[in-house]
Write a structure and sequence with these properties.
It is built from twelve helices and five strands. By secondary structure, the protein is α/β, with parallel strands linked by helices. The protein has a five-stranded mixed β-sheet. Strand 3, helix 2 and strand 4 form a beta-alpha-beta unit.
């Protein structure tokens, strides 16, 4: 069976606080929900009990490639990098990265900005609020590729739930395997459009993840707040009571 949502995974089973594991069919992550078959939608709503979709993409992305409608779900759009773009910071888009040698620099900068930009931080707080209000069923969060905005969201949620950093990074790096076929297809389309091989190579690199990218977010959090955990408590303002509520709700 070729289940469609690209870069999809259930975070259930990861070990968190006190050796307790994340409940299955509660926290899902993926890339954009497009070109889904009816069978895909049924699997999401019946097997994974999907109830809430949190789309972290921007307005242009949502208009150009709207999510497929999934009956029985509630949709929320939270544009994580709108304010970063408005502030004039580059978001790591392969169209604007000047050459292959600067891809890593631009990608690390994106992760730093998602930690430092107040509005981006407020967006992640909105995601936490939705998690706190999720009474039953699964919440799925995603962006375009399900790697950067989604990757940081996963790191935040998993840290709150007490998942070890090394396990967070292992989950993060799964993207490279899970997006391999989709990335190959996207690169084929770019070449057919006549995009230069240099720009295709830049796109290929920008469509993958490296531990250094997520580590840049951790280092920015440490620089500005003391640690990634303190970023969650000080910037995202997640209280001890809220942390315990999330632990009780999402761990078994």
């Amino acid at each position: 069976m070729n289940f469609r949502p690209v870069n999809f995974r259930d975070l259930g089973g990861l070990e968190g606080n006190g050796g307790r594991r994340i409940r299955p069919c509660r926290l899902l992550r993926s890339g954009e929900l497009v070109r889904l078959s009816e069978e895909d939608k049924e699997i999401l709503t019946k097997e994974y009990q999907l109830r809430t979709i949190v789309d972290l993409r921007g307005e242009k992305e949502c208009k150009e490639s709207p999510n497929d409608k999934i009956t029985g779900t509630v949709y929320h759009n939270i544009d994580v990098i709108k304010a970063i773009h408005e502030a004039g910071a580059d978001m790591g888009s392969f169209e604007t990265i000047p050459d292959i040698d600067t891809v890593d620099f631009y990608m690390r900068g994106l992760y730093e900005q998602m930690i430092q930009n107040t509005e981006a931080v407020n967006c992640y707080r909105k995601l936490i609020d939705l998690l706190l209000s999720q009474k039953e069923g699964a919440l799925l969060f995603h962006c375009f590729a399900g790697k950067d905005r989604t990757g940081l969201a996963a790191a935040i949620i998993l840290t709150i739930l007490g998942v070890r950093k090394e396990d967070i990074f292992l989950d993060y790096l799964k993207t490279n395997e899970q997006r391999k076929a989709e990335n190959s297809m996207l690169l084929h389309k770019l070449r057919k459009k006549g995009v230069s091989e240099v720009r295709c190579k830049i796109a290929e690199t920008a469509l993958t993840v490296k531990a250094d990218y997520l580590e840049a977010a951790y280092l920015a959090a440490e620089k500005h707040y003391g640690s990634f955990s303190e970023f969650i408590s000080k910037a995202l303002k997640v209280t001890k009571e809220e942390e315990q509520e999330l632990i009780n709700r999402y761990l078994r």
